[in-house]
TrEMBL record:
E.C. code: 3.4.17.19
Requisite cofactors: Zn(2+)
Domain of life: Bacteria
Organism this protein belongs to: Roseovarius azorensis
Function: Broad specificity carboxypetidase that releases amino acids sequentially from the C-terminus, including neutral, aromatic, polar and basic residues.
UniProt-listed InterPro entries: Peptidase_M32_Taq
Record's catalysed reaction(s): Release of a C-terminal amino acid with broad specificity, except for -Pro
The name this protein goes by in its record: Metal-dependent carboxypeptidase
Gene3D superfamilies assigned: 1.10.1370.30
Pfam families recorded: Peptidase_M32
Length: 489
């Protein structure tokens, strides 16, 4: 046995335990009794203590140093690169801090849900203040004198910097604001009918299969905030249902299927290794967004979906494919990020990015966060927030400590824009197949170019290799302006 063999055996066990920890989170969101929150916090803290001890074990460091001298092939070097990054980050964070964060965020998630239901930000603010305090401590340990926010961002998008994000958002914002003004001036139809919950869920399962989700290795459940969880042979998704708005269920499902198909498609040889998950949250989001938007909301697929929904529901509230396509892509005033149209979605992310940077920098305190959110929303969207659940309490991310996560949503959109442009060049029959309700040619292209590689390459490399060009916001912006410019006429 070489040092590399011993190290990978150790990693296999750690990766398996991390999957168990993820299953605790899935259960908390879907099936856990409400009264179990405190117990789950202890369980999550205990699991985090075990994982942190394994990740910071001196034996792991010794084996890693020895293995780095043995690596002779690209796969081994990629494995060791990711282990080194994880080991260096883990050893910078004290064990008691890692456990405290896990326990607190498990408890804070339940308090957020209760405060959201009651539209009472003041009830949530004290625990959020404690989450921010601990995340600032964690960031300081990771940054070692560098930018605190960038240290947290690196957890979700390795290699990304605040400077690159600022430049990208500065390029995107004026063009999105201009396009939004044109789109909001147009008339947009809406569906006006009743859509049975169980019929929606049957359609959701059908769509999941059409987009390539393997139910033999997954399941679909309900959650307040849809998400995907797991990797390899156990990848679970959730959705939600509104009987007056079937698009909520349909596109939440397709979105999460994009995440899940990424995990299910990773080369099985990488199972229980650091390469066995998606390389970053931005690349992950590129899969969910391209499935949902460029494929699922495109004119070709919408034509098929309209006909299928007429078969299932009979009356869908519009009478032709063109009106249905416009209803799917309706640009409208609203508050909720996850329900936002493609034009305004990234403006929601920019708002959160600026606020969470201010929280981590210490320039904004949680007692003032709701007012800051409301002021910024008026400035960015032109109308006031009506209640906390439509504003500062709408997202779960801050309650569970995911600071640095939000910008990866916009990065995912930018990556998806690059991938879509390349896909159009590579797959000339794309629209013909989508019009038949068959996205398989598109998902196969993504599986080969992005998904099967898992964490083997760095995020920029993944997109560059698949697209044949460097990362840029222009393909996304051009796609949005062409699509919504035509729809707004």
């Amino acid at each position: 046995m070489t040092a590399c063999d011993d190290l990978m055996a150790l990693e296999r066990e750690t990766q398996a335990l991390a999957q168990v920890a993820g299953r605790l989170g899935w259960d908390q969101e879907t099936m856990m009794p409400r009264g179990a929150a405190d117990q789950r916090a202890e369980e999550s803290g205990a699991m985090q203590a075990v994982l942190h001890a394994r990740r910071t074990d001196a034996r792991r460091g010794d084996l890693l140093a020895a293995a780095e001298g043995e690596a002779t092939d690209d796969i081994a070097r990629a494995q060791l690169r990711r282990i080194r990054r994880d080991f260096d980050r883990a050893t910078r964070v004290p064990a008691d801090l890692a456990v405290a964060v896990a326990r607190l965020t498990s408890r804070a998630q339940g308090q957020w849900a209760e405060a959201r239901a009651a539209d009472d930000y003041a009830a949530f603010a004290p625990v959020l203040a404690e989450v921010v305090r601990l995340k600032r401590e964690e960031a300081a340990a990771l940054a070692r004198g560098g930018d605190l926010y960038e240290a947290l961002l690196d957890e979700y998008e390795p290699g990304m910097t605040v400077a690159r994000l600022d430049a990208m958002f500065a390029e995107m914002r004026p063009r999105l604001v201009s396009l939004r003004a044109r789109a909001l001036a147009a008339e947009w139809p809406m569906l006006d009918a009743h859509f049975d919950e169980q019929a929606q869920l049957r359609l959701a399962r059908e769509l999941a299969r059409r987009f390539g989700y393997d139910f033999a290795r997954g399941r679909l459940d309900m959650a307040v905030h849809p998400f995907s969880s797991g990797s390899g042979d156990d990848v679970r998704i959730t959705t939600r249902v509104s009987e007056s708005d079937p698009f909520n269920c349909i596109y939440s499902t397709i979105h999460e299927v994009g995440h899940a198909c990424y995990e299910q498609a990773i080369d099985p040889a990488y199972r229980f290794t650091p390469l066995g998950q998606g390389v970053s949250m931005g690349v992950h989001e590129s899969q969910s967004r391209i499935y949902e938007n460029q494929l699922g909301r495109g004119r070709a697929f919408c034509g098929w979906l309209y006909r299928r929904m007429r078969e299932i529901f009979d009356d869908v509230g519009v009478t032709d494919e063109d009106s249905f396509y416009r209803a799917v892509n309706r640009v409208h005033r609203g508050y909720i990020r996850t329900e936002s149209d493609e034009v305004q979605y990234n403006l929601h992310i920019m708002l959160r990015y600026d606020l969470e940077r201010a929280l981590i920098a210490g320039d904004l305190v949680t007692d003032d966060l709701e007012a800051a959110w409301n002021d910024r929303f008026v400035a960015d969207f032109g109308y006031p927030v009506d209640r906390a659940s439509n504003g500062v309490l709408q997202d779960v991310h801050w309650s569970v400590g995911l600071f640095g996560y939000f910008p990866t949503y916009s990065l995912g959109n930018v990556y998806a824009g690059c991938l879509h442009a390349a896909m159009r060049r590579a797959v000339p029959e794309l629209d013909e197949r989508l019009a038949q309700g068959d996205p398989g040619v598109a998902t196969a292209w993504l599986r080969a170019g992005v998904q099967r590689h898992g964490g083997r390459h760095e995020p920029d490399e993944v997109i560059g290799n698949a697209c044949g060009q460097a990362l840029a916001a222009e393909p996304l912006l051009s796609y949005l302006e062409e699509k919504f410019g035509a729809l707004a006429e």
